[in-house]
């Protein structure tokens, strides 16, 4: 491939629609290859704005504003980085010949739980939790009765756990209804899901450049309030579960098509693998690849977008811990103890201009001889970043790992290493 210089009439230009911590790392990778970066978000001085050639602040849900900016910037590639973007603008841009990553229809399917669930379960025939869609409280009650308790209630359009709750009894439904309504995005419709008592959950990062598809080592993660707090790589899986996970990821990403990295979220129970959802972009749990791989998920995303080879090396087991702000502040400070900068750990501070309770502001990364050790270090050292907020856990049940599944895991580990 030829790499024209940035800021010229013939530059290769990427436009990030969303400029948070994930976009910031993509922008840095693009800068390393001399690709011109235009970063867009709904607020000023977003993380990727600070490392881009050009920064814009617009209402990303407004079709006209998004389209007008796309036409003015004339990017080679448009990279959606968040879900809350005017999908009509992306469809229109694609019609006008712009290259949306991975493509507008894939963005459309994945931004709405109804579309992706129907696609995965009904079109591709993948195993998922039982589910129903509802838009009235009465229908929510009926769906919960049919699916059984506990069940998980989520707005069809939301991310990072916003608006999500578990109803354990019929009495919880009113609260779940209120939580969902308060969430951002289009909360007019909800999905009610069977609560899957999985042994563990993973993200399988899958990159495709339309010539080849590659998988990263599976990433294990722990969630609090529907948002990730710890991730580690590799996540131990039985060979059968790993093979099923890769088959599902290949089917889903081939079905969505286009170029880029995808975060395929899966629940694993024994050797059964359930498809949960997929992000057509780097995944927050995948920040661990900043320390574990020669090419992080961000570098792989960019390579896939540009149609470059997707070769990389898995360097070392590692883990990540999300640092969440405790307070609201327009002058936020992340206090980091020097010990976080030891030979086997480092920190990435996103530079978000404002904090509010629970907002992810930084990530701590650790490496070790095993993922268990790396995770233990991450859990211990996240305390080196001050006031990391203890948030109450939504999916409390998952903490209780059955003795049986522990024994099975140990046996597999003994046999397969
Ligand atoms: N049906 C379910 N059964 C059991 N646990 C679930 C279920 N749905 C969600 N969870 C738990 O809640 C977490 C968040 O759910 P989900 O990924 O659907 O939300 P999200 O808002 O899209 O989050 P993100 O944007 O961070 O991926 C899951 O990773 C899992 O731990
Ligand atoms: N699970 C999706 C995810 O992690 N997205 C990442 O968080 C940013 C928004 O953060 P903010 O809400 O703090 O502005 C997004 O821009 C993206 O980088
Ligand atoms: Mg998710």
UniProtKB/TrEMBL annotation:
N(1)-(5-phospho-beta-D-ribosyl)glycinamide binds at residues 21-22, 81, 284, 352, 359-360. Coiled coil: none annotated. It holds the Pfam family ATP-grasp. Mg(2+) binds at residues 265, 277. It comes from the Bacteria. It catalyses: N(1)-(5-phospho-beta-D-ribosyl)glycinamide + formate + ATP = N(2)-formyl-N(1)-(5-phospho-beta-D-ribosyl)glycinamide + ADP + phosphate + H(+). Its EC number is 6.3.1.21. Residues 118-306 form the ATP-grasp domain. ATP binds at residues 113, 154, 159-164, 193-196, 201. InterPro entries: ATP-grasp (IPR011761), ATP-grasp_carboxylate-amine (IPR003135), ATP_grasp_subdomain_1 (IPR013815), PreATP-grasp_dom_sf (IPR016185), PurT (IPR005862), PurT/PurK_preATP-grasp (IPR054350), PurT_C (IPR048740), Rudment_hybrid_motif (IPR011054). Pathway: Purine metabolism; IMP biosynthesis via de novo pathway; N(2)-formyl-N(1)-(5-phospho-D-ribosyl)glycinamide from N(1)-(5-phospho-D-ribosyl)glycinamide (formate route): step 1/1. Keywords: ATP-binding, Ligase, Magnesium, Metal-binding, Nucleotide-binding, Purine biosynthesis. Homodimer. HAMAP family: PurT (MF_01643). Involved in the de novo purine biosynthesis. Catalyzes the transfer of formate to 5-phospho-ribosyl-glycinamide (GAR), producing 5-phospho-ribosyl-N-formylglycinamide (FGAR). Formate is provided by PurU via hydrolysis of 10-formyl-tetrahydrofolate. Belongs to the PurK/PurT family. This is Formate-dependent phosphoribosylglycinamide formyltransferase. The lineage of its organism: Bacteria, Pseudomonadati, Campylobacterota, Epsilonproteobacteria, Campylobacterales. The gene is purT.
């Amino acid at each position: 491939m030829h790499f024209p210089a940035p800021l010229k009439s013939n530059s290769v230009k990427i436009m990030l629609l969303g400029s948070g911590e994930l976009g910031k790392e993509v922008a840095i990778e693009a800068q390393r290859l001399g690709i011109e970066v235009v970063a867009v978000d709904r607020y000023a001085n977003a993380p990727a704005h600070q490392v881009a050639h050009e920064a814009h602040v617009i209402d990303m849900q407004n079709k006209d504003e998004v389209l007008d900016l796309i036409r003015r910037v004339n990017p080679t590639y448009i990279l959606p980085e968040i879900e809350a973007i005017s999908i009509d603008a992306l469809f229109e841009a694609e019609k006008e010949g712009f290259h949306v990553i991975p493509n507008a229809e894939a963005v459309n399917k994945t931004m709405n739980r109804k579309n992706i669930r129907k696609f995965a379960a009904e079109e591709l025939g993948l195993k998922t939790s039982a589910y129903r869609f509802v838009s009235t409280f009465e229908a929510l009650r009926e769906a919960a009765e049919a699916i059984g308790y506990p069940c998980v209630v989520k707005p069809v359009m939301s991310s990072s756990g916003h608006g999500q709750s578990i109803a354990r009894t019929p009495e919880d439904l009113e609260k779940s209804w209120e939580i969902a309504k308060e969430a951002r995005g289009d909360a007019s419709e909800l999905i009610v899901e069977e609560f899957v008592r999985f042994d563990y959950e993973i993200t399988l990062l899958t990159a495709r450049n339309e010539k080849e598809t590659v998988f990263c080592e599976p990433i294990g993660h722990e969630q609090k309030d529907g948002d990730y707090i710890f991730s580690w790589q590799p996540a131990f899986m039985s060979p059968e579960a790993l093979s099923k996970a890769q088959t599902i990821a290949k089917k889903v990403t081939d079905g969505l098509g286009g170029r880029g990295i995808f975060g395929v979220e899966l629940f694993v129970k024994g050797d059964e693998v359930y498809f949960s959802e997929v992000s057509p972009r780097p995944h927050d749990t995948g920040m661990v690849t900043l320390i574990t791989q020669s090419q992080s998920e961000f570098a792989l995303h960019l390579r896939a977008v540009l149609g470059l080879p997707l070769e990389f090396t898995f360097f070392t087991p590692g883990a990540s811990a999300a640092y969440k702000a405790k307070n609201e502040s327009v002058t936020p400070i992340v206090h980091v103890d020097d010990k976080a900068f030891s030979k086997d750990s480092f920190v990435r501070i996103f530079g978000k201009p404002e904090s509010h309770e629970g907002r992810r502001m930084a990530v701590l990364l650790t490496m070790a001889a095993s993922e268990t050790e790396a995770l233990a270090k991450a859990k211990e050292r996240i305390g080196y970043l001050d006031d990391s907020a203890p948030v109450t856990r939504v999916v409390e049940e998952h903490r209780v790992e059955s003795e049986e599944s522990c024994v099975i895991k140990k046996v597999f580990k003994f046999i397969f290493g």
